[in-house]
Specification:
Blueprint: E1 36-40, E2 51-55, H1 62-72, E3 78-80, H2 85-93, E4 98-102, H3 110-118, E5 124-128, H4 135-140, E6 148-152, E7 165-166, H5 176-184, H6 196-203
Parallel strand pairs: 3-5, 4-5
Antiparallel strand pairs: 1-2, 4-6, 6-7
Length: 209
């Protein structure tokens, strides 16, 4: 399991037989084996101190455990259906470069979720499925083979929109390390600070980005 999620989820082991009490983070352990997921709460700004604790109660098989982890990973992907207007408005409002992932997958992959978290507030990522409403978007960017990744840089100082940049890694190039290296070249170096309005939204459970 640790090998399957390496680089996206940290796996730790605690021996309940060792001397001393369990770390407070682990909470009460009523029996063994106990498998828990500690997931950062979404609406806490730059902090990851607050966690959502989830007990795993499915089959003790690596396949099932990985499915549980993949499903519960933090996800900041913008879903697109037919129009990029809301995605572009959100990115432009916050001064963020834009990345558009055209995918053939039926749901957001764990690697995509990881990238959306890694580049949160430095790059906004949209995911476009090959559906009928999205055909015009695929045609606009000349997407014929999937997956495809396109970065749209912010306008320059003169307000002129720059040309989209296409990832040329090919089908075999869609690995976590290669995509992370590509996106890091186009993401902002520092995170865009949360605006007062967005900080207020976070306290009510509605985070902007």
């Amino acid at each position: 399991l640790a090998k399957a999620v390496k680089g996206t989820v940290k796996i730790a082991y605690y021996d309940t037989q060792q001397s001393g009490g369990a770390p407070p983070l682990l909470g009460e352990i009523k029996g063994t084996p106990t498998i828990r997921l500690f997931k950062p709460k979404r609406n806490q700004g730059d902090s990851n101190k607050q966690k959502i604790v989830m007990d795993y109660n499915m089959e003790r098989k690596a396949k099932d455990m990985k499915q549980f982890l993949d499903y519960n990973m933090p996800n900041y992907i913008e879903q697109v259906s037919g129009s990029l207007d809301k995605f572009e408005e959100k990115a432009d409002r916050n001064g963020l470069p834009k990345a558009i992932l055209f995918t053939s997958k039926a749901k957001t992959a764990s690697m995509t979720k990881y990238l959306s978290t890694e580049f949160r507030r430095r790059l906004l990522i949209a995911e476009v499925y090959p559906t009928k409403p999205n055909k015009a978007l695929m045609d606009k960017y000349g997407v014929t083979d999937l997956p495809a990744l396109i970065v749209i840089p912010p306008a320059n100082e003169e307000g002129i929109q720059q040309e989209p940049i296409r990832y040329e890694g090919g089908p075999d190039g869609f690995t976590k390390n290669k995509l992370q290296n590509f996106l890091s070249k186009h993401a902002l170096k520092t995170k865009v600070p949360i605006k007062k309005k967005e900080k207020k939204a976070e306290t009510t459970g509605h985070s902007e980005f």
